[in-house]
Amino acid sequence: MEAEDMSHVQAEVRGTAGLVTLDRPKALNALSLEMIRDLTAALLAWRDDPRIERVGVRGMGKEGPFGAFCAGGDIRFFHQAVLAGDPRLEDFFTEEYTLNHLIHGYPKPYVVFMDGIVMGGGMGISAHGSDASLRIATERTKMAMPETNIGLFPDVGGGWFLARCPGRIGEYLALTGQLITGGDAAAVRLADGVLPSAELARAWDSLADRESFEALREQVQLAARPASDLAARRAGIDRFFGLGTVGEIVRALEADASDWARETAAVLRKRSPLMLHVTLEHLRRARHMTLAADLRMERDMVRHCFHLRPGAAGETFEGIRALAVDKDHAPRWNPARIEDVTPEMVQAFFASPWPGHAHPLRDLG
Q: Where's the Enoyl-CoA hydratase/isomerase domain (predicted)?
């Protein structure tokens, strides 16, 4: 464990910009509760500071700035917190989702450099900027919402932003956890453009000055976008992932003769059957919600992920164990088959544990 008093968020003011570097490269900048608090504090301080006109966020790679953005939340902490009964687990999700909403409504341009790994919680601090913001991907971007692989669902507002991808691409990304490129991200509205990674240092420096920043924005918007395999598969994705249930999706994929369909079905068969069903219901609901409403729903859902079946009996605990703790990559999902999940099991995740006036995120929106 790293020392808790060590800051992994470096904040500085340069010219008219507030600049944040996530500085936990050994963990691919995975977010701890302390990092969430430090990033929130910086954004709140700069929000009302007339000297600050824009905010930039990047990750520190193992060889220097850039190269990795954020691999998500600190799932090892989740595992330890469940075993220890650590109340900070509750704080983590409440404060993380509050941060996601703060970014969504931030009144100043929020510029995020999505170089390298951008997963889970890293999407939560990069996907939610306002129309004035700028999300920059590169040829090294590796983006995913892989939560169903650890018995979780795409949270941090994932239901909201994935549901707003073209067609049924959001359902495909949410259920499979498929890794996509910077070109894919730009094609499906998860990035605003793609710059060569060699230009990131200059782009970062340009944030300090308004005129240079506007030139950067124009460059990103006009830059040629790499080809997107994801966009090219849109018709097939829509055909399968627009079906009504997870069972229908998998049966249709398994009945198809193409290699892509069979491979996709095989991926889904490895994910948590229960959380596949929960995730599909989540996206279908979130498509018609505001972000604030979706985050409140996600806060209910994540509470159930850790408490509906207490302790080690939960899907999320088991998924993290298999992937990151024991690393046997052999999760014992319960139920074990997609066909064995009942509607009652799914609906339990959408019943709020709190009355509205006492909800942890009642003040959002």
A: 18-350
* Rounded Cα–Cα distance for residues 11 and 6 (Å): 14
Q: For the segment 256-279, what is each residue's pLDDT rounded down to a tens digit?
A: 999 999 999 999 999 999 999 999
CATH T-level fold of 233-358: 2-enoyl-CoA Hydratase; Chain A, domain 1 (3.90.226)
Is the pTM value of this prediction over 0.90? yes
52 within 8 A of 11, measured Cβ to Cβ: no
Q: Catalytic residue numbers? A: 73, 121, 147, 155
Domain limits, the chain: 9-229, 233-358
> pLDDT tens, 150-191?
999 999 999 999 999 999 999 999 999 999 999 999 999 999
